[in-house]
Design brief:
The chain has nine helices and 14 strands. By secondary structure, it is α/β, with parallel strands linked by helices. Helix 2 crosses helix 8 and helix 6 packs across helix 7.
Length: about 270
């Protein structure tokens, strides 16, 4: 069994290496095994986070470990950092691959190598005040309700904007914010009635926040389902890596291992939405 390298680093340390270039990552040991630099968020439970033992774990981290076990010619060096540092590092070649629950966009497809198989799903759900149970179940029900502000460049903004464009007679009134407000704070605002609803991807630990905080919040079925992907630095040396990652993910999915990991960290098999 290969030894998987796991480190947790601060964003500043991650940024310090920017500009090292992908070519410097393309090193192999005496057995021909190449080290692949992988960046994940270190505090995005349950997607990826630092556990009580100080080791990185989480839904995508455990998938990366399984993929690494299948790739005999590669060894993953998984490092924890911030989302922004990971993206900068991927652009510069400091990191070969990043994992942070990313969905496809035209810009990403033009900028990175994308494995042929997705690693899971981003389930967009509505978190409504408890007394809205049965009253808010779909996006149609948000018209006339107080919706928590969304960041102007995120997936929720795109979802709500597209809905309004398609439903001129049933508009959802929402404001934008600069972000930086923790998910836990938004959920508390819904619990207290400051807002009637909060639209958010469900892979950010909301269930645990609601349970630990004793919040009275109704969670809907997904209103949008988007597959998520690992992003790989676009270079000739990573073309084979990209192909093998896609093949490994397909095998893990077929064997039911991805579903097992989903049940462990999300409490449900997200692949039911395939």
């Amino acid at each position: 069994m290969k030894k998987l390298l796991l480190f947790t680093v601060f964003a500043g340390a991650a940024l310090a290496g920017c500009g090292s270039g992908a070519e410097e990552n393309a090193t192999a040991d005496e057995n021909g095994t190449r080290t692949v630099e992988v960046a994940v968020p270190s505090s995005s439970k349950p997607l990826s986070y630092t556990g009580e033992d100080g080791e990185l774990t989480g839904y995508e981290v455990e998938i990366l470990k399984e993929v690494d076990e299948k790739l005999e010619d590669y060894e993953f060096n998984i490092q924890g950092t911030s989302d922004s540092a990971a993206e900068i590092g991927l652009d510069t070649g400091q990191y070969d691959m990043i994992a942070q629950g990313l969905i496809l966009s035209e810009e990403r497809e033009d900028s990175y190598l994308i494995p042929s198989e997705h690693n899971g799903f981003s389930l967009m759900k509505i978190y409504a005040t408890g007394n809205m149970d049965g009253e808010i179940e779909t996006l149609d029900d948000l018209a006339g309700k107080k919706v928590a502000p969304v960041t102007p460049t995120g997936g929720v903004f795109n979802l709500l904007t597209a809905y309004n464009e398609a439903h001129p007679d049933n508009q959802i009134d929402f404001e934008t914010s600069d972000g930086g407000i923790p998910t836990s704070d938004r959920l508390k605002e819904v619990d207290t009635g400051t807002y009637d609803a909060f639209v958010n991807p469900s892979n950010l630990g909301q269930g645990e926040i609601i349970e630990e905080g004793g919040l009275d919040i109704h969670i809907t079925e997904p209103v949008e389902v988007n597959p998520t992907y690992f992003m790989i630095h676009d270079s000739d040396e990573n073309a084979e890596l990209n192909e093998q990652v896609g093949e490994a993910l397909a095998e893990l999915k077929g064997d039911g291992i991805l579903s097992d990991i989903s049940n462990e960290f999300y409490g449900e098999d997200i692949f039911q939405y395939e």
